[in-house]
Amino acid sequence: MPKRFINPSLADVTEDIAGAVPLEIIQKWITSNKTKKLHEDILKNYLVEGTVVASDSAGLSKLSEELDLLEVMKIVSHPKDLVYKYGSEIGGVGIGIWAADNTEMFYPKSVSPKLIYEKMQQVQKELENFSLHIGMAIHYGKFIKIGGGLFGDEADFVEDLAENHTEGGEIKLTKSFSKLLNDKHISNTI
User: Fold this and answer.
1) In 3D, which of 53, 78, 54, 52 has the Cα closest to residue 132?
2) What distance separates the 2 farthest-apart alpha carbons in the chain?
3) What proportions of the chain, in percent to the nearest 5, are helix, strand and coil?
4) Splitting the chain (190 residues) into consecutive groups of 10 residues, what average pLDDT does each group show?
5) Which of 14, 30, 106, 163 has a CA 20 to 30 Å removed from the CA of 150?
6) Residue ranges of the alpha helices (H) in 45-112?
């Protein structure tokens, strides 16, 4: 077997998903007295409300031990492509840079929660027999959207939920999303 020069686990990089913070925000903050009210005033134009679906691969470390980097990168792309395909069909927008195995999409509040959930179920169904599975977290809330990324406590919450508290093939829903979904038959709420 030839020696590998690149470690395939590099496909699971931690990458800041946002672009640059607009200079005007930084200047307003630096030249101010840094009050809570000013903080809120600066960010109010960047607040968005809606649903975020975050995902993370399960079993990538094992695959990266068995395959070379190019094979891993190809395998990691398939679930991301499905998340984007189904999400963008209903008005979802990709958030940040999808450089690793994670995805994040934002859906404005005009998009039906039931439709979002059904589309993500379709993604999971298509991945049932694929070599790499993903866990998903779905959360409805208010986020700060700057530089193509989402920030704030609720953004951190849904990202952490997908990254650290889901398993492959699973979709976890937060209480705020479940409340909008209003389906008593769904039990995967956190």
Assistant:
1) 78
2) 62
3) 45, 20, 35
4) 44 49 78 83 90 90 77 86 96 88 94 96 95 94 90 93 93 93 66
5) 30
6) 60-66, 69-89
Q: Which are the contacts of 98, defined by CB distance < 8 A and separation ≥ 6?
A: 17, 80, 104
What single letter denotes the amino acid at residue 111? V
pLDDT of residue 8: 45
**Bridge partners (DSSP) listed for residue 133:** 58
Rounded to the nearest 10°, the torsion over CA 176, 181, 186, 190 is -10
Q: CB of 138 within 8 A of CB of 174?
A: yes
Residue 187 contacts by C-beta under 8 Å, 6 or more apart in sequence?
none
pLDDT at residue 88, as a whole number: 96
Instruction: Say how far apart CA 140 and CA 180 lie, in whole Å.
Output: 8
pLDDT of residue 189: 60
Q: What is the per-residue pLDDT for 96?
A: 86
According to the model, what pLDDT value does residue 98 have? 83
> What does each C-alpha distance from 154 to 13, 89, 185 come to in angstroms?
22, 24, 25
Q: What CA–CA distance (Å, rounded) separates 130 from 145?
A: 33
